[in-house]
Amino acid sequence: MKKIPIIPVPIEEAELALFEERKKIYPRTQKGWFQTWRWVLVFFTQFLFYGTAWLNWNDRQAVLFDLVNRKFYIFGMILWPQDFIYLAVLLVISALSLFLFTAIAGRLFCGYACPQTVYTEIFMWVEAKIEGDRSARIRLDQSPMSFTKFRLKTTKHLIWLAIALWTGFTFVGYFTPIHTLATELSGFSLGPWETFWFLFYAFATYGNAGFMREQVCKYMCPYARFQSAMFDKDTLIVTYDTERGEPRGPRTKKIDYKAEGLGACIDCGICVQVCPTGIDIRNGLQYECIACGACIDGCDQVMDKMGYERGLVRYTTEHALAQKMSKDAMWKHVFRLRTLIYGSILGMIILAAAISLAYRIPLKVDVIRDRAMPKITEVGAIENVYRLQIMNTQETERKYQISVKGIPGAEIVNETQISINAATSRAFPVRVRIPAGSAPIGSNRIKFSVIDDQNSKVTVTEKAVFIVPK
Fold first, then answer.
1. DSSP letter assigned to residue 409
2. The whole model's pTM is what?
3. 363-468: which CATH topology?
């Protein structure tokens, strides 16, 4: 049987890209109601961030997370590691707030208050002031390197670096007293951890806001991926009215577009040009949309110029759009059972936390019994030794009275009054003695009471065990 020769067939090599190459987005500067509110929140959030670090309260920094000394100062309140429950409550409140706001109006936080959005907006403003509007920036990037291009790019990056470094400095200033930090920085004597976090946070700000921008929102932020779980058809979202806008097409202002069979959309592309993430809202809701409202402002201005009714792109719900609801009917569906439950739970947790903080006792006591065997005195009395850790969370020196009860005749042999400096803790031994025969052999429950000399309402009672030997 004759063998058929096998002729090798050349295989064409194909290059497969695992990740889509980033196309730089040049958002067009846009004015309008939503953009005004974005800038209001930019100023507000940055005023809080940069300004609060310099506020003083009772001769100390008003807000300081002193990790070294394990004290958190928040204006007139001092929190210690034992107050970790308040951090847990804060996280629960933040999560429920996110659920509530998302269920009502989608990614409002992303569009208006997220640090990534805020700093990207600041950096893009600097870029526009130095390099010009959208078309000027595109031309500059496409042009060959020249002295003018080098000068503009260098100026932009120097200002970006200055903002980033100031941001990193302020961030570290919430963990190391900012006045001390400024002195150390000016004297080039920053500690290793301060130096690391100062440069790390500055680098993150510079990189995320200056270069990565929408990539952080699209690929790094997990919220974009699970937001759909919190959306439903009564959630307010930025939406293009397809029924009114299609079929789209260019035309002059004089043309009666309805008679020509056209929709209200003139296909100008403004909604795409102003979008910071580069999406086309006319393609429907997309996870990249951060609900900033730039496309609404852009489209409304085009509608005004054409003499058309505003709202081709607007905040609405899928139900309202499909069923042509009025605004009143739409808002009734927005504040539905789901959002009312979220709001009620959130309100109760906030109220409970506020009451807990208001009635929080600024005194903490820990009692540890010494492991040494009980001591029997010459007259048969029995002594146990304890270690009391008393923490004064107030900002003034306090004196406390210590007493014990639970066994008849029980008394503290050593000092019963102790003075503790402001916002400090002190540990000291306490000897408790009971008369012979006043308690049965074995473990007996006793209670230590610590009372503020100047305010009897500030009192803490802690349980302990008194051992009577055989």
1. T
2. 0.83
3. Immunoglobulin-like (2.60.40)
